[in-house]
Amino acid sequence: MARRETLQSGPGSRALVVDIVRSSGPISRVELVEATGLTQPAISNIVRGLITDGVIRETGATVATGAKPRVLLAINSSVAYGVGLHVGMDAVTCAVTNTRGGIVGRQLAGLEGGTSREPPISQLAELCHRTIDMLGLPAGSIAGVTVAGRGPADVQHGLLPSLQASQPGSPASLRTELEQRLSLPVLVAANADAAAVGEFWVRQVSRERTFGCLYLGTELSAGLVLDGALFRGASSNAGQIGHVPMSPDGPPCPCGNRGCVNLYVTPAAVVNQAWGDSELVARMGLRPDETTARTFDILARAAILGDREARALLDVSAVGLADSALTLVNLWDIDTLVLAGPGFAVAGSLYVQEIRRRLAASAFARSIHAVRVDLSNNPRDSVAIGGAALVLQGSVAPGHGPLVAQSVHSR
Ligand SMILES: [Zn+2]
Questions:
Q1: Is the pTM of this model over 0.70?
Q2: CB atoms within 10 A of CB 102
Q3: H or E segment and range at residue 69
Q4: Looking at the chain, which terminus has fewer C-beta neighbours within 10 angstroms, N or C?
């Protein structure tokens, strides 16, 4: 069912046009008139401005309809580049993408000591510099950088408390410090928000979808894209599905609650359970000095290959996660759900199957519509790619995302 926002409440006609060209692929001006409800002169003006700014281009192809062939328009993939830095379970990933979300550069740096040690800001800046420098991109073509990590994110002040809490004397603002070191605009985001925008952007999801993304890594969390824009809530910390209590009498969660979903479904929870089974530990060759992320991957691979005990541990995670997916879908009447994050990299198919099964059997609106559930094409890099998409969306389609300084359209 088409939802067409009024221009008063929508993201602005320019952002609307960019978003429709992004999601539809090559499209003519006439089709844009039909899709937006804007007048033909308005579309002509907006398209002319976007072509002048290099945001969209004429593809050279035409469709012959009626008397006059229609020229097709597409996003110009090299008008700007975005950079995403993901502080993940045991590594920092830096990805540079073009305007269509294609990766043009990627570097990975390990976190010494695994998850207990957060990277110093100097390491983030250095990784970012190294990744950008090797690409030789035109000066001024980088729209900005998003640093994404475990929430909560203080987007207004440019802080990721989870990243900075362990650094005595760390600067008041991650954003300010990185902007000074990189001379680029910097945004901060929680993992699921970045992943959601990235999957929405890269998969060319239509703005008419009610789109959800489940992130599994250090935590389980969710991002929502409604009418083409990330749903941010009061402070950009919506979608904390991992902090919904699964067992009210369960162990305390760092969030202050008890028995949260995160304590049962995350890779860390699965690995903790595995350590209680000495036979499994010996059979898998698990080592205490290995990172949680790698240990989880070993267990996930064994589960896929049919190891019964490993499969039982993953099944507990998948069943709990399917509960969370059902809650999310029922709360928001989601019709498109994507699974992203390193937790889905090895055994993502197992999670997809469990969630599909649960939604088909129990989603509240199942008699009205199906829910499409897909695995990210690149679960490990989805947050870094999403960080880049977030900064690009704010730059080429302002009105959907946060305002990015030095945006492409104003240069
Ligand atoms: Zn919690």
A1: yes
A2: 12
A3: strand 68-75
A4: N
The domain made up of 13-75 has a fold known as Arc Repressor Mutant, subunit A (1.10.10)
Q: Which CATH number fits domain 204-376: 3.30.420.40, 3.30.930.10, 3.40.190.10, 3.40.50.11060?
A: 3.30.420.40
* Buried/exposed 14-47: b ≥16 CB within 10 Å, e otherwise: bbbbbbbbbbbebbbbbbbbebbebeeebbeebb
Q: What is the pLDDT of residues 62-111, one digit of tens each?
A: 777 666 788 999 999 888 999 999 998 888 999 999 998 899 999 999 87
> Measured between alpha carbons, how far is residue 392 from residues 44, 181, 284, 306, 399 in Å?
23, 20, 43, 42, 12
CA of 334 to the centre of ligand 1 (A): 23
Radius of gyration of the chain from Cα atoms? 22
Q: Is-contact 292 91, C-beta < 8 A?
A: no
Question: Ligand 1 centre from 248 Cα, in Å?
Answer: 11
Tell me the CA–centroid distance for residue 7 and ligand 1, in Å: 39
> What whole-number distance in Å separates Cα of residue 257 and Cα of residue 155?
23
